[in-house]
Amino acid sequence: EAQVTQNPRYLITVTGKKLTVTCSQNMNHEYMSWYRQDPGLGLRQIYYSMNVEVTDKGDVPEGYKVSRKEKRNFPLILESPSPNQTSLYFCASSPGTSGGSYQETQYFGPGTRLLVL
Amino acid sequence: GDSVTQMEGPVTLSEEAFLTINCTYTATGYPSLFWYVQYPGEGLQLLLKATKADDKGSNKGFEATYRKETTSFHLEKGSVQVSDSAVYFCALKERRGGATNKLIFGTGTLLAVQP
Fold it and tell me: Nearest-CA distance from B98 to chain A in Å?
């Protein structure tokens, strides 16, 4: 089954304790990205990756890191989490970014709910 | 910058009622437009999309028409069901050369359908 998976689905942690949220897709997609969802703000992009070893900042990158060593995986790293990073996080992927609506249609993972105390 | 504005929710309807969720956008180029749906406890699923002016996206009885003159992409359904209860997000993607695949989302509209 074609899908985007995220782990963990739920996480409670404390301020300053490094954590990683994993994201994996099995569709051979080139493009992957991370969003956070907050009440009244919709979803905002944190980081994105156009391909292996190519990553760039989105609209709200502060406090986050990413890496793209393999095409299928795009982990989100919080080196020193703070309470303002409590949120619902979504990973998404698409075949590409141009060349028609098929390429640009994004598929989302189930979400990771993070609470930072 | 680019933005999407959706009507505030929650929207509460009775089963078989007509649904409209308003969405307007601001963009400097010619964006693609999307509606995503988020069922309770799940991720976002693409509901429908339109890539150019006057295109109509449709899926599962939902429709939305890309109106460039009014910069709108309102979501409609003729007869809602309880199973349509979810949060609906309008989103755009710019189509400028070299642009990323970033989606710009509205704040979401919660739809609650009562039996």
Answer: 9
